Structure formats: structure tokens, C-alpha cells
Amino acid sequence: MTIAVRDVSKWFGDFQALDGVSLEVPADELVALLGPSGSGKTTLLRIIAGLEAPDAGAILFHGEDATARHARDRRVGFVFQHYALFRHMSAFENVAFGLRVRPRPARPAEAEIRCRAHDLLRLVQLDGLAGRYPSELSGGQRQRVALARALAVEPSVLLLDEPFGSLDAKVRKELRRWLRRLHDEIHVTSVFVTHDQEEALEVADRVVVMNEGRVEQVGTPDDVYERPASEFVYRFLGDVNLFHGRLVRPHDVELALTPNGGSAIPAAVRHVRPRGAVVRLELDRLDESETIDAEVSRDRFLELALEKGDRVYVSPRGARLLDAHQ
Amino acid sequence: MVRRLLIGTALGFLALFLALPLAAVVTHALGDGVPAYLRALRDPDTLAAVRLTLLTAAIAVPLNLTFGLAAAWAITKFAFPGKQLLVALIDLPLTVSPVICGMAFVLLFGAQGWFGSWLSDHDLKVVFAVPGIVLATLFVTFPFVARELIPLMQEQGTEEEEAAVVLGASGWQTFRRVTLPNIKWGLLYGVIVCSARAMGEFGAVSVVSGHIRGVTNTVPLHVEILYNEYHLAAAFAAASLLALLALVTLAMQSLVEWQGRRRGEST
User: Fold this and answer.
1) Global pTM?
2) Pairwise CA distance, residues B119 & B125, whole Å
3) Backbone torsions φ then ψ of A105, nearest 5 degrees
4) Given the DSSP bridges, would you call strands A253-256 and A265-275 parallel, antiparallel or unpaired?
5) Distance from CA of B50 to the nearest CA of A (A)
6) Is the pLDDT at B39 greater than 50, yes or no?
7) What is the mean pLDDT of residues A81-88?
8) Which of A186, A31, A192, A29 is nearest to A120 (CA)?
9) Angle of helix B130-141 relative to helix B83-95, nearest 10 degrees?
10) Chain A contact for B173, CB < 8 A?
């Protein structure tokens, strides 16, 4: 199912959380709402779910105006940042909840409810822990119960608020790969909120970059990373350096031991931080008091044989530049 | 050393101000022997006082349970103008002397009061009658359930309710299946405290009761009358009922708190 957001604005008192946001989410895609905190991404997600009402604008599900539709009638699966599992119910009862509260004519028989809940717990690889209470589960397990619970009502849209926000780094990586695979399996239009650019770029089909209540850019991960539409997007999606009024990513910084003429900038190595296959260098410019972040491959680093205090000549690699203050 | 001193002080204080008076009440109540004690309890006026006290509690507690739940729900799950005022108003009965609120009811419903002539025209009696006692008790005990629930519900937030609604639950289903189970121990605790206060209230009830023996006397008022008439054994026998109530309340509170903690819900 497609979701369309038309000119949505939302105020909280004097604070404008959303300022005329428009957005199309194509059917079956996994879309990331990416932005710093306060950019309005969670508010937008909650408006799509019907948990907040927009002050202006409309939400369309499958081309139909759903703005006035109550959250309980939107058939939306929502995974909360802190899971919001029902603390007095077992994992199994949490998953079965959405089926149990259906009005009698639409409610499946008890045997079918049990069967569906167990299927979903199996899907999230938790069938063995069906009887556990939320307080007896780890963060990652709770997250998966929350997801199974959201999927139990066969939602036409799946919305996830910072789904990996409160997990440690390792579990996070595992879970987001798993979510990507799951999405490829079950094909449900999904929107997730994140402030982590790596997460958005790795998991999503399409990234919506938000800032101060507005959409800065919508595009594939490749689009927004390689062809950022604004300085904000460029800066938000990774570290940048400023060269002669132009922004350059650390991995697009070229290092040499000799000036080679041209516009290379002399700098001194301040810090060397090896990071697996690449090496991060912090450089002090010698012509002005700025620092430059550079990232070179391990091989290139060994070839240059750089040490702390050495002098290098820095130049931006030609291709991907963006004028600052654009 | 400091710890022992603190614990010693607390225990000494408890012994002096709680255990000792309680022991004195029991000793005095049984001063004329057990048969006299039982005779005093079987006195028709005492029995009438017990009945009235139970009736008052049976009306006031369910009403305040409903009110407290509604107020706590409104305050913690919704934002609306005047919310701070409502919170302050809930605390009012705790900050106003019970005698004053008794007086207020006399001023409203008494013979010379605002609604006095209307009430007498319709042959209704509030002050110096059972309705007045129930009203005064309602007023005095209304903060207990709400005050118990508000911090608990604030701490739990609204996410579980939102999750239930998104999953398709109706308002009633959300309350029945999500909110109520999460607050049940806190709610029970509030009801216990509310009941204890409803049965033990003296000041406000004293003003509106008129002290008509066998008709408008609750147990605390009856104790006072007996005491003033030097029926000491009878007074302490009735008082021992209230003391017993206090002990039962204490035991139930501890039980509920222990249960609540065991189930991982803070009360």
C-alpha cells in the first residue's frame, strides 16, 4: 500500500515540529526518515499512524484520505522506540493481543489465534520464549516481540520508531540486517525513523532526510550520499572538510608527500587512527588554523609511511564536490 | 553507629506513639473483663454506629474509586487547560481542616444554608442526617485513590495504551486489558487507605452529624460520646474496633505492597 503525506504541518505550542511536509512512500518499500533529534521525523511517523493529528495537511493511504481515520482503524503496525510491550503479558499474549481485541465477528477462533501467534514468534525466532514476560527478555528479544506483535494484525503499513535506538552496537547490526531480510520476505510498506545515517543508508530502499521540520532530500541511499541536495544533507551524511569554499568527504581527500604544484594544501599529521582496512588521519593545516579529516586505505597509508608530525600535501579528489553555502 | 542511632530513634518513636497507645486501648477495653467487653459491643447504639460507619464507607469508597481513577486517567493521559488546577483541587481535602469542610456542608445544606430552604421544601434532610455524613466522608477521602494512582500512571506513561489502540483495541478494551492490570496493586492500595480513612473520619463528620445516638453516630463519634459520659470500658471497647481496623489495614497494605513489588509494579 502507498502512503502519501500532503503539506503536513504540526505545532506543539510555539514549536513548529513539521512545516509543510510532503512525501510519497511507494508500495512495499522500506523507507528511512533520517534526521537529527528535533527534525520532526518521529512526529511525522506518529501522524502517519494516527497517534497525533496534523494541524494542516492530509495523510493518504492508497490514495484515500485517512487524515480523520482513528489510529485503531488504520491497520498500521507500530513498533515503539522503547517497545511498549504490555508488561503484565507474556510474549505470546503480547503478540496475540491485536487478534484478541477484534470485535467478535472478525475475531479468529482461539485455536487460530494461538497458531498465528506462534507462527509470528517463530518468524522472529522467539518461539521458545513465548511464555516469558517482557522483563525477562533482552533488549533485542523485546524488539522482536514488538515487531511480531505489530505484524500480528496483518498491517498494511509497518512503522518503526528508532527501532534499534536502545540496543548495543553488535545487536543493532544483527537486527538491522535481519529486518532488511524480513522486509524482503514479507513485503509490507515500511517506514522507520532513525538518526543514524549508517543505519538508514544500509537498510532502506529510500532515504528521506529531514531537518527542522522540513524534508531536505528524498532519494536512494546512493542518491543522498553521492548527490546531496543541500549542505545540510552533505554534512549530516558524514564528516566533511572545507576546501576553498567547497565541501569534501574524508575519503575524497588525497594525500601526497610532495606539493606537485597546483593547489595542494600543506598540513601536519596530528593523529593517526587505524580502523581496520582504512586509516583515519587528523591533519593540521599549516596555512590557516583549521583541521582536516582524511581517510586513506591501509595500503596507501603504508606506502606514504606517515607518522605523527610529518608534513603532507592535501588536495580534494576531483569528482564529488559540493559548493558550500549553496 | 549512626545507623543504629537512627533505627533506635525510629523504633522508640513508634513504640511511644503507636504501640503504647494501642496497648492502652486494648487494656482499657478489656478492663472490666471479656464478658463486659462483648456486652459493650452488643449494645444497640454501638451496633447502629458500626452499621452506619460501614454504610458510609460502602458508599464513599466506590464513588471515590471511580472519581480517583477518572481524575488520575485524565491528568496522566491527556493534556488539557486547567490540569494544574485539578491537581491542586484534589489535594484540597488534605490541606483544609476536616472541621472546616464539615462547616462548609452545614453552610450549604443546613437550615440557614444556601440550599436549606429548597431542601426543607422538598422534605429532604442532609445535615444532621446520613446524607450529610456520607457527603462529608466523600469530601475528606477523595484524594486517596487519585494521589496513589497519579505518580504510578505518570511513571508508566502512555506508550502501552498507544500500542493497544494502534493494535485496534477500543477505549474500554485498552482500559480493561492494559491500564487496569498495570495499576491494580496501586489501585487496591489506594482503596485500602481510602476505606480506613472513611471509617475513621471524625472532624468533618462530627460537624454534620448532630450526634443522634443510634441514628447519626458513626463509630468514632460514638466513642467520643461514651467517653464524655464516663463509660470508659464501653468507649474503649468501641475504640478497639477502630484500632483493629487500623491493624487490618496495615496488614493489607503490607500484603498489597509486597504483592505489587513481587509483580514488578511499584506502588
Assistant:
1) 0.78
2) 7
3) -60, -30
4) unpaired
5) 39
6) yes
7) 92
8) A186
9) 120
10) yes
> How confident is the model over A259-270, as a mean pLDDT?
81
Give per-residue pLDDT as tens, A26-63: 999 999 999 998 899 999 999 999 999 999 999 999 99
Contact B168 A86 (CB under 8 A): no
Which letter does DSSP use for residue A80 in this model? B
**What order of strands is seen across the sheet that includes strand A157-161?**
A76-79, A157-161, A189-194, A30-34, A206-211, A214-219
Grid cell in block for residue A287: 596555512
User: Quick one: residue B150, left, alpha or beta (phi over 0 = left, psi -120 to 50 = alpha)?
Assistant: alpha
| pLDDT, averaged across chain B | 87
Chain B's closest residue to A159, CA to CA, is B166
* Residue with grid cell 491493624, as numbered in its chain: B247
Q: What are the phi and psi torsion angles at A259 (to 5°)?
A: -65, -30
What integer pLDDT is reported at residue A321 of this predicted model?
52
Q: How confident is the model at residue B264 (pLDDT cuts 50, 70, 90)?
A: low
All residues of chain A having their beta carbon less than 8 Å from the beta carbon of residue B159 are 80, 82, 84
Predicted local distance difference test score (pLDDT) of residue A326: 43
Q: Are B109 and B119 in contact (CB under 8 A)?
A: yes
Q: Is the pLDDT of residue B56 over 60?
A: yes
ipTM: 0.80
Set of cell numbers at residue A97: 493481543
Would you say residue B25 has pLDDT above 90? no
E-state strands within chain A: 3-12, 15-25, 30-34, 56-61, 64-65, 76-79, 157-161, 189-194, 206-211, 214-219, 241-243, 246-248, 253-256, 265-275, 278-285, 291-297, 311-316, 322-323
Using the Cα atoms of residue B150, residue B152, residue B154 and residue B159 in order, give the sign of their dihedral. Answer: negative
Summarize pLDDT for A99-132 with one digit per residue, the tens: 999 999 989 999 999 999 999 999 888 989 999 9
Contacts of B181 in chain A (CB under 8 A): 88
Residue B263 has pLDDT above 80, yes or no: no
Å from B74 to nearest chain A CA? 17
Distance CA B79, CA B76 (A): 8
Question: In angstroms, what CA-CA distances link B239 with A152, A160, B208, B223, B245?
Answer: 59, 61, 21, 6, 10
CA angle B208/B211/B212 to nearest 5° reads 115
Of A39-43, A71-75, B258-262, the poorest mean pLDDT is in B258-262
Q: What is the pLDDT of residue B266?
A: 41
Whether residue A272 lies within 8 A of chain B, CB to CB, comes out as: no
Q: What is the pLDDT of residues A192-220, one digit of tens each?
A: 999 988 889 889 999 999 999 999 999 99
**Angstrom distance (rounded) from CA B189 to CA A179:** 43
